[in-house]
Specification:
single chain; alpha+beta; Beta Polymerase, domain 2; seven-stranded mixed beta sheet; 18% strand
């Protein structure tokens, strides 16, 4: 089993001091210009309570992190922040396609600490840690910079998902006008729409929350990082625009497929009406001559029967070619 405690590292003046045990956290966070970054993966209640005690976390934020399944948000608790981000990962299915799996990252940010708690996602932040340690000048900003780096990493992971959804939509569109595929296309389009909504639910609330980190009254832990959080907001705005574009294309594609089904049904109706008319003419003539009245025209004629049959055939031939010319048959 993967350990719940992934990392516990102390930094000072933009440089890594050491990997430290959890018991020493309170010692390091009390030092000036020092902060501790702890990463947890699906911690137990006891482990999360221990972190809450070490960092003096707000009980409401801890309660949200303990239960998970939160809406993306960024909340202030005094001089600290609590953020919830959704991760989206593509996983293959047994049918040969893929599905989107939503995970969650809860982030506690204070002046001298940053705690990340991951739920239902196996994509860690080792690359973020390596990037931050390669940029000591930026790491001097402390936990606020690491908070930005984690957010930026999560948001950047949305771009490949959006690209995959656009590719999937283009593949469906290439089959829209193929005969007999309309109903299957609609099922596929609705499945794609569900994926798009999954990404939208992760992006839109976070977009609103991120806008408060660089404009107006900025939280103290994010002071001096406005341009960086504005960059995250710009990325979210681009993703939001892509989502809206895909949704519009999905709506149009679904309407086109419904129109194709309606046209197909109309074609069937026209064919049935044409054949009904062709069958009705001989049925009418035969019905008249089958009434067995004594005084009927041509009843005693020698050629009465062949003439009646010939009239039926001639009428049906005329109707057949007439409907062919109208493209009903």
């Amino acid at each position: 089993m993967r350990p719940m405690l992934i990392n516990c590292v102390a930094y000072q003046d933009g440089k890594k001091l050491a990997d430290i045990p959890v018991e020493d956290i309170s010692e390091y966070v009390s030092r000036p210009d020092c902060f501790v970054w702890v990463a947890l993966f699906e911690p137990t209640t006891e482990e999360l309570d221990q972190m809450a005690e070490e960092f003096d976390l707000h009980e409401l934020a801890v309660e949200d992190a303990r239960h998970g399944h939160q809406r993306p948000k960024i909340e202030e608790y005094g001089d600290s922040l609590f953020a919830v981000l959704h991760t989206i990962e593509r996983e293959p299915t047994a049918e040969g396609g893929d599905e989107l799996v939503t995970g969650e990252v809860d982030i506690f940010v204070g002046a001298n600490y940053l705690l990340t708690v991951r739920h239902r996602t196996h994509m860690g932040f080792a690359s973020v840690r390596a990037r931050s340690e390669r940029e000591p000048e930026l790491l001097k900003h402390g936990a606020g910079y690491v908070f930005y780096a984690v957010m930026d990493n999560v948001v950047d992971r949305y771009f490949p998902v959006i690209d995959a959804l656009e590719t999937e939509l283009e593949e469906i569109e290439s089959h829209i006008f193929e005969q007999g595929t309309a109903r299957r296309n609609i099922e596929t389009l609705y499945a794609l729409k569900q994926k798009v909504m999954t990404v939208k639910h992760a992006v839109d609330p976070l977009m609103e929350a991120t806008g408060r980190l660089y404009g107006g009254r900025v939280p103290q832990v994010c002071a001096g990082m406005g341009e960086y959080f504005r960059d995250v907001y710009d990325h979210l705005h681009r993703i939001h625009a892509s989502i809206e574009g895909i949704r519009e294309m999905l709506t149009t594609a679904i309407q086109v497929n419904l129109g194709m089904i309606s046209l197909s049904d109309n074609e069937v109706t026209k064919k049935l009406a044409a054949w009904a008319a062709i069958i009705a003419v001989p049925t009418m003539i035969a019905g008249i001559y089958g009434m067995n009245f004594d005084f009927m025209p041509e009843l005693k004629w020698t050629f009465g029967y062949p003439l009646a049959v010939a009239a039926m055939v001639a009428a049906d031939v005329y109707l057949y070619f007439h409907f062919r010319r109208l493209k009903w048959l």
